[in-house]
Amino acid sequence: MFLRTFGWSFAITVAGLIAAGLLWGPTGFGVVAILSVLEISLSFDNAVVNASVLKRMSAFWQKIFLTVGVLIAVFGMRLVFPLLVVGLTAHIGPGTVIDLALHSGKTYNGLTYGQHLNEAHPAIAAFGGMFLLMIFLDFIFEDKDYQWLRWIERPLAKIGKLDQLSALVAMVVLALSANFFGNGHAETVLLSGLLGLVTYLAVNGLANVFESSIEEDEDAEESDDAEGEKAAAPAAAGKGNKAVVGLVGKAALFLFLYLEVLDASFSFDGVVGAFAISNDIFQIALGLGIGAMYIRSLTVYLVRKGTLDDYVYLEHGAHYAIGALAIILMVSIKHEIPEIVTGLIGVAFILAALASSIVRNRRLEGSEAAPSEPESVTGSKV
User: Fold this and answer.
1) pTM above 0.70?
2) Beta partners for 180?
3) For the chain, how many structural domains are there in total?
């Protein structure tokens, strides 16, 4: 399973590094390798969250995510999207933007392509920050089967019963960010943040609508076929098959789009930060693309191994990392945050959640306590 899942990642890594060495020499080889490691370290929490969504999709759509999704991630989000951002924010024509990107020494209005992209950071950070913040808030306000940090999650789950609380909190955070971190870009921050919020509500909302529709249709079919106690076993088997087959059609399509926007939100800071390592957009696209391929392979591997079911707090740790990244993005509108800080915070949450999951599993293996009993102060099943 490991080689089957990561085979393409290994092959693309070898081909990409060989191409980097041939095109740009030893220096280019090293730059691409560093960018690949940077992308993987910054996006490990992204893989865990992706896995929590991808496991709801069919095998076909999982393959689409690993193939078509990679093309979108590499060429779309890490090559074409920055060009569009620079063109829109700096009011530069497509031809000029491409010329600036291809010739790192050229300037327009006194700024290079990388500098123009850095100037667009307030809009990028506000959009990505709001999208990621909504993911975190919807998770933290949800009534979950398992609670990791019980003293935080239990009270938040209770107040999370209020309708649209996540959107309300996000709007307050956006307003405060525009006021304290806007630094002359308050209108841009507000507009971009609203677009990030609307994008999340639209894509996630449509996916949930179609998913609910599919579940209602399947429940209706089971109800029509049910005939007393004889139908109970087939009905239960049908529900089990639903979990295995996963979502298809429009529901899976919108979940796929949701994953792509999620990947974009994670990649924003990586793309901007990559210009501190290289000014060549092709080196950046190749290096970040190799890293993105590993993140996708890791996502599929976590789904197929059932890792999230075995280590129940991993998803919690990933969402806390997302919440931290969202706040970092908003703060970075005014203050520069080193990439290593962003990466270490995410890794720290993941490792802490993994350690808590391992402790929980060992405790359950050595105990005959009922599943309904509290598991610990910091982790329990509700």
Assistant:
1) yes
2) none
3) 1
